[in-house]
């Protein structure tokens, strides 16, 4: 941890005030309706202090820890995705005035946003979505929001029971993709380091002191402890090829017996990027809108092509999701589409565990492979 400093919680509030003064909308982990979500905050007082989550397949509960820590709850259902790639946005409006049609491109809304409390898996997910939206022909709307975002990462001091970021090489400590990263100490103070010039500029205004060797040692011990206590794991060795040669594995049909094809997993996934372009018109026919909205490969109409649905069964749709995530993504973008956050496990209504499904296919590899 080079150039690491130590600040108090009060100094963190100074950072938030400074960001707000520069026009940033402040977003951080806060409790809403029994869930830790990323939502508008105004100060440290709005954060989920003293809250711990319990997660499992299809399970999520919060409890009061009785402590002072701000970031003990692990990943909630939300990531930074909806702030950079909104669930729905208008692209253009078409208006008809007698015999004339006019097309107005929707303005790009990219108000500066500072997102506090992003875990390392989420920062890696942003980098993955950058490859999707900024590679080749960059998406101007995503680019504008990405440039306007200030990202504050937090190292994980505990692993959730559905986490497996250590397997994916994406955590638990923040190593990339942040403007500022925080490590919470047992004392309530925070270690802080900058990852960009913008982060260095912001840290320059904070009252800070040099981190002591004991502070750095505590942070390193917390990282090692968290990495060693992951609730799940995935063997990634040869995973791409494993999935490709098991496209007809009976496990796909077995998991489809449980799967509701509800799309929860794709909605909470921080890297899923599939979307539809939807046209709608007013009842009078004088105004029409073209919008972009999130879509899911679990929906039947997602694969509709030339008058037919290509993937008509749930097992085909689950296979498409898992195989693209762990294999096709590597071919397209040079990285796995999974960051090991475990959200798809926690927020699956029937508790389907992707780590268990991958392990089952690996255990029977070669028995039914093509």
Describe this structure in words.
The chain has 370 residues and is α+β, with helices and mostly antiparallel strands. It has two domains: 200 residues, no CATH class; 104 residues, no CATH class. It is built from 13 helices and 16 strands. The strands form four sheets. An eight-stranded mixed beta sheet has the order 3-2-8-9-10-11-1-12, with helices on both faces. A four-stranded antiparallel beta sheet has the order 7-6-14-13, with no helix packed on it.
Give the strand tally. Answer: 16
- The number of helices is 13
How far is it from the N-terminal to the C-terminal residue, by CA?
48 Å
Q: What structural class results from the helix and strand content?
A: alpha+beta
Physical arrangement of strands within the biggest beta sheet: 3-2-8-9-10-11-1-12
Shape: globular
Rounded mean pLDDT score:
93
The number of distinct structural domains comes to 2
Instruction: Note poorly predicted spans.
Output: none
Largest sheet: 8 strands, mixed
Order of helices and strands: EHEEEEHEEEHHEHEEHEHHHHEEEEHHH
What is the gyration radius calculated from CA atoms? 22 Å
What percent of the residues sit in helical stretches (DSSP H or I)? 25-40%
Beta-strand portion reads 15-25%
């Amino acid at each position: 941890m080079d150039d690491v400093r130590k600040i108090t919680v009060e100094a963190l509030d100074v950072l938030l005030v400074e960001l707000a003064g520069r026009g940033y909308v402040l977003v951080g982990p806060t409790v809403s309706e029994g869930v830790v979500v990323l939502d508008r905050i105004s100060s440290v007082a709005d954060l989920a202090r003293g809250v711990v989550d319990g997660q499992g397949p299809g399970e999520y509960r919060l409890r009061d820890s009785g402590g002072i820590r701000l970031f003990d709850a692990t990943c909630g259902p939300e990531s930074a995705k909806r702030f950079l790639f909104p669930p729905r946005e208008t692209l253009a409006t078409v208006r008809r005035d007698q015999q004339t049609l006019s097309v107005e491109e929707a303005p790009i809304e990219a108000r500066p946003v500072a997102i506090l409390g992003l875990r390392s898996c989420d920062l890696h997910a942003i980098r993955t979505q950058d490859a999707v939206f900024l590679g080749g022909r960059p998406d101007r709307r995503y680019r504008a929001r990405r440039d306007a975002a200030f990202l504050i990462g937090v190292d994980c001091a505990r692993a959730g029971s559905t986490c497996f970021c250590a397997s994916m090489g994406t955590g638990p400590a923040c190593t990339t993709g942040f403007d500022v990263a925080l490590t919470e100490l047992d004392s309530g103070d925070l270690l802080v380091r900058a990852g960009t010039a913008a982060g260095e500029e912001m840290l320059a205004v904070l009252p800070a002191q040099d981190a002591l060797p004991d502070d750095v040692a505590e942070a390193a011990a917390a990282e090692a402890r968290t990495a060693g206590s992951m609730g799940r794991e995935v063997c990634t060795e040869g995973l791409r090829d494993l999935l490709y040669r098991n496209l007809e594995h009976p496990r796909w049909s077995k998991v489809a017996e449980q799967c509701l094809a509800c799309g929860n997993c794709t909605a909470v996934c921080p890297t899923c990027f599939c979307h539809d372009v939807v046209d709608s018109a007013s009842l009078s026919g004088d105004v029409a809108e073209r919008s972009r909205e999130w879509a899911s490969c679990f929906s039947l109409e997602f694969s509709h092509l030339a008058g037919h649905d290509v993937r008509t069964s749930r097992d085909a749709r689950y296979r498409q999701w898992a195989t693209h995530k762990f294999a096709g993504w590597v071919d397209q973008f040079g990285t796995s589409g999974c960051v090991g956050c475990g959200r798809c496990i926690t927020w699956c209504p029937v508790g389907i565990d992707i780590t268990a499904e991958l392990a089952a296919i690996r255990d029977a590899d070669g028995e039914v492979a093509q």
